[in-house]
Specification:
By secondary structure, the chain is mainly α. It contains 11 helices and 4 strands; from the N terminus they run H-H-H-H-H-E-E-H-E-E-H-H-H-H-H.
């Protein structure tokens, strides 16, 4: 057999395994078999597609999929139904991790923790507090607490700290509004994020605000996040 024929045979085996079929006997494997695990199946389909590309290119190995070539993060209704809540309130990073475990991150962009946090800030469930030492941290609003967001003291490598945690109700709220979170996750990188504001940026911001320009459009023009735009408006005394 030629190398291409071996690849084709390997692809046929992978396709059968991914579909829950024993490639040797051509019989369906038991439901409880590890091959029927959806995450294993996705991996097999992914490798099969890579082999397809290699075969179609005449055996020339294709480059790995770059981040920019990955599909935007998305979850079907069936995939969302497999989200695992757990027994205890958890952090937003754990929520993001559980959601990312439902997709193939080799082919799909990762859902960022910051996308969930931005959604919660925009929705009024979280607010940013500044402490006497200048440090900033997110804390639940009264609305957020009513939906199951709370704080608890935890101990880390640097000592004790206050963690924001989400109970089942709060996690369900995020799941119910996941499309809004995904839309934020798909927003382009804000190139000026973290940079000092230039006088011309403030001038544009003042004029745009007075003209009633939407925050989303201002964010796109200044290449800064909507949260940064709102924060700057407050600092300039243009918004409460």
């Amino acid at each position: 057999m030629t190398e291409l024929e071996i690849m084709q045979r390997a692809k046929e085996y992978l396709d059968k395994l991914a579909n829950g079929i024993d490639p040797i006997t051509d019989r369906a494997v038991p439901d409880g078999d590890v091959i029927n695990n959806v995450r294993i199946s996705r991996c097999l389909f992914y490798v099969s597609d890579v082999l397809r590309q290699v075969i179609e290119s005449g055996g020339i190995k294709v480059k790995a999929i770059r981040k920019s070539e990955k599909a935007p993060f998305s979850l079907s209704a069936e995939e969302r139904s497999r989200y695992v809540f757990g027994d205890w309130p958890c952090s937003v990073s754990v929520i993001a991790q559980r959601l990312n475990e439902l997709v193939d991150l080799n082919a799909t962009q990762k859902l960022k923790t910051t996308s969930i946090t931005k959604f919660l800030l925009d929705s009024g469930l979280l607010r940013e507090e500044e402490f006497n030492d200048g440090a900033k941290s997110k804390r639940p609003t009264e609305f957020g607490r009513s939906l199951g967001i709370s704080t608890e003291q935890r101990t880390g490598r640097s000592g004790e700290y206050t963690a924001v945690v989400y109970d089942r109700q709060a996690q369900q709220f995020i799941l119910d509004n996941l499309d809004a979170v995904i839309a934020i996750n798909a927003e382009p990188v804000h190139l000026n994020q973290g940079k000092a504001w230039a006088p011309e940026e403030d001038a544009y911001l003042r004029q745009a605000f007075q003209l009633g320009v939407d925050v989303k459009e201002i964010s796109s023009e200044l290449k800064r996040s909507r949260e940064a735009i709102r924060s700057r408006l407050k600092k300039l005394g243009l918004a409460e």
